[in-house]
Amino acid sequence: MVAAPSWAADAPAATSDRKDAIRPDPAIRRGVLPNGVRYLLMRNANPAGAVSARLTLDVGSFQEGEAERGWAHFIEHMAFRSSRNYPEGASDHVFAPWGIAFGRDQNAMTTLFSTTYQLDMPKPDGEQMKAGMAWLRDVADGVSFTDEAVKRERGVVLAEMEARSNEMLAAQETIARFQGETLRSVNRPPIGATQTLNAATAADLKRFYDRWYRPESAVVVLVGDLDLDRAESLVGEAFAGWTARGPRPLQPPLERPRSNRGLEVLTVTGEALPVAVAACRTNPGAGRPADTIPNRRAAIQRQVWQTILNQRLARLVNKGEAPLVSAATLANDVRDLAIACLIVVPTGDAWDGALDAAQGELNRFAKDGPTELETEAVIENLRGQLRAGVLSSASRTSSAIASDLAARAVNDQLSSSPADALYAFDLAVEDMTPEDVKARFATDWSGAGPLLSITGPKPPTKEALAAAWTRGEGHVLGERYADQAKPHWGYDWFGKPGKVVDRKTVEKPGFTRLKFSNGLILNFKPTKITPNKVEVRLRFGVGRRQVADTDYIVAEFGTNLLAAGGLGRNSVEEVQKIYDGSNLWGLSLGMGPTAFEMRTAGLGESLEGQVSVLSAYVSDPGFRPTIDARIPTVVDLVYRSYLTQPAMALNIAMTAKISPDAASNVPPREVMAKMRSVDFERVLKPVLTTEPLELTIVGDVEEDRVIALVARTFGALPPRSTASRRTVEPHFVRYPAVAPPIIRVEHQGQADKAAAALIWPLYVANPERRREEYSLKVLAAIFDTALRRRIREELGKTYAPAVAINTPDHGDQGSLVVAVDASPADIEALVVETRAVAAKLVAGDITAAAFEEARAPLLAGVQTARDNLPWWAGAMSGSARDPALLEEYLQYGPLMSAITLDEVKAAAVRWLKSDPMVGVAQPAAAKGARP
Fold it and tell me: pTM (2 decimals)?
């Protein structure tokens, strides 16, 4: 037995013999340092060699006073700017060469009730672990607050506020304040308020920091491929010397919402807002309840009634008889406020008919409650999700586990093993009846209200909405709800099972390729890198080259709606019910420059369902018209939203100006609004049902099982001709040889938001130029870091400038794109600054250190990806017909490692020397000064 370190205090008891106790995960080592710092440590080797660290503090925007709004988040920003051991952003320079990317691996988040710092290290050695822990300790009590640093970071925080703000968010906050009135939870968004952010001084922030960043309020989490004794020592060495500054502050009291409110109405007008009605009731929140079986039982009952009622509302929507785009309920508890809502989105302006239908379903549930079959089905589905967690527990990544442990600990929730979580669930739902669920609904739907709100470009009067709700209070939709029989799966027989006629081993990277008698190609790899999980890809056709320019938007729109269109013999709702709410395992269809691809992912035990459903979609897609009535409303909302988003408005305008013949240009609103299921069917069904198929399955599943399954599904389909198909030469995006004058566009959004884009044209990518492409990837990463340090950290004028390259093979012309959001007054100056950074890169101002800081995270990212199923599925998918796809995956690491600084400098000279195409979006109401 290893003796406890001298700094370790006794941890709370971690086990209980009580049958109704929630058992802590025995794989987690828990402890408390003498100064009060709690820690949770867990060994996990996914990814191999990686370690994830979290420092979570029990302080968020809820703890802020009225004059301190936004300060918790402001301090989070300051922690990255400068600290005791990492002055002036030095952590960025230290961590990047170790493969740790700012934003991806080193980040933080402030919520209402907590602030969490994240550090994910791909393969840390002893020195790197100490450096990582030193940075977290600096966050705890070593953040530097100077007037100059606060002034610069204030600009970044305000820029983040501007970037995140939009008409929808403003409407949501207005509605939340209407519902919660003076409660802190609805009046303390973490981003804060402009007035209090501008008023904050270095001394103010330091006082807030010293008051709330305290050992007894902190949780340190280490999860990864490391010895727990070593992890415990690292925590102690880093945090045992941390002492609190001043007396422990009192937590703000939890106020209660007014209980004497009756029917009240709020209308919110906005050009980009959807027409949406919300009817809510409020109750006092539960505070920070103990994590017990009875409390979990109540939470599950709430989840059950929500799920059942939402299923009923979804069926109401999908019938197409009521003017509904969507209808759903939600229930939430944020310590000081418990709220339950019915939310309805109508087709067009038919809000009254939509509300009447949804309110009728709500009233029927309130009157009769759920059926026994509904209750049992939802409980079993929830149990199945937990059972899936048990089966896939070995595949959890260290980063995901660390974040979960930190979040649960700071909210006083116990972290159990997946198996014990399932056991606790079974205790909580024991003898749960429909009457229990109905009673929970009645409790949640009691309290103050109803509080009605409606949004839209031209919402009705308050009186009209109140009258509509009052009329519907006695309306019950139909008779007592009757259970529906589980539908029959219409695709038990695809034909005579096919046979394997050819088999070969692809040595690198190591998988099997099979060919069936009907021409189907199957790429298969059994692997336990992600235990009990499986990834499925289906590749077919030639993508864009199969779609006429006039049908491009139809195809893009249709790929997104394929699953919703169901099958010939089963609707999508029936398929989901047959497969127990699987949501089709995330089934998606995408169209690339050279192929179409469908994807699903799930547990190995669900593979039969995944393969059967995919086989049905490529043999008998439904394209059912049930979604048609909703299309005009959705299109209208999307287009109104486009006009109010600076970056989107700019992207549309620039593409139309630079490449007017490109098929991807956004069509007029009326064209999109007229599209229907028959249009999607006309364009996509021939591709789905006639193109040769290449199937990829990778995961924790046996070969014999896969072959037998594929033989009776895909392998049983009729042979598909491999003869050359008629293809088109699409109008891909092509850039002019000379950049046009600056493209200026006015957006219809907020007057404090502007955006700019700078595009340097590259070439049409192909496999033969892969090394040059990777040199450009490194160049873009160097550009991104240099630009961030200049216009965010030094100037404090923007939040998240981004530099990226787009290089699809055989498709749109490649480009290096810079995107910047800022205030209208600053945006033109930031265009100049961006050009200046590019000019320095062209002049060769790229150091060996900057080169390695950019490349190391790229290499670390691909190495981590290779340890996961999506990497293997991506490498294998389509590789029989296009070997270059596999080659790209195999050569990324070696090629990227071989790139030299000189190659990156040469790429800068070749591609950044010419003038970029520049676009600027300013608000229609206020334009910034132009140089």
Answer: 0.92
Q: In whole angstroms, give the CA distance from residue 355 to residue 363.
A: 12
The reported pLDDT for the residue numbered 20 is: 62
Strand order across the 448-456 sheet: 264-269, 448-456, 276-284, 337-346, 324-333
**pLDDT in the model for residue 92:** 85
Q: Give pLDDT < 50 ranges for the chain.
A: 1-17, 926-931
For 541-669, list the strands marked E by DSSP: 588-591, 596-603
DSSP, collapsed to helix, strand or coil, labels residue 349 as: coil
253 cis-preceded (ω within 30 degrees of 0): no
Confidence at residue 395, expressed as pLDDT on a 0 to 100 scale = 87
Spatial CA neighbour of 68 closest among 336, 248, 252, 215:
252
Count the Cβ atoms, other than its own, within 10 Å of residue 604: 21
Determine phi and psi for 734, rounding to 5 degrees: -130, 140
Sheet with strand 802-806: strands edge to edge? 743-747, 917-923, 754-761, 815-822, 802-806
Q: Quick one: how far is CA 362 from the chain centroid?
A: 30
- Alpha-carbon Rg for the chain in angstroms: 29
In one letter, which amino acid is 32? Answer: V
Query: pLDDT for 458-504, tens place per residue?
Result: 999 999 999 999 999 988 888 899 888 889 999 999 999 999 999 99
CA distance 214 to 217: 5
Q: What is the C-alpha separation between 110 and 96, in angstroms, rounded? A: 23
- Is residue 491 within 8 A of residue 616, CB to CB? The reply is yes
Strand partners, 453: 266, 278
Residues in the chain: 931
3-state secondary structure of 587: coil
Q: How far, in Å, are 303, 387, 557 from residue 384 at the CA level?
A: 15, 5, 33
- DSSP letters, 14-42, are -----TTSPPPPTTEEEEE-TTS-EEEEE
Q: What angle do CA 752, 756, 757 make, to 5 degrees?
A: 155
pLDDT at 445: 96
In sequence order, what are the residues at sequence separation of 6 or more whose Cβ sits closer than 8 angstroms to the Cβ of residue 172? none
Other beta carbons less than 10 A from residue 622's beta carbon: 23
Q: Which residues pair with 218 in a beta bridge?
A: 57
Residue 581: the pLDDT is 58
Question: Tokens 């539908």 correspond to what residue?
Answer: 487
DSSP string, 749-816: S-TT-EEEEEEEE---B-GGGHHHHHHHHHHHHHHHHHHIIIIIIIT---S--EEEEE--BTSSPPEE
- How is residue 813 written in tokens? 């012309």
**What single-letter amino acid sits at 667?**
P
To which H or E segment does residue 119 belong? strand 115-121
* Bridge partner residues of 697 (DSSP): 524, 536
The pLDDT, as a whole number, for residue 930 is 32
**Contact partners, residue 419, CB within 8 Å, separation at least 6:** 390, 393
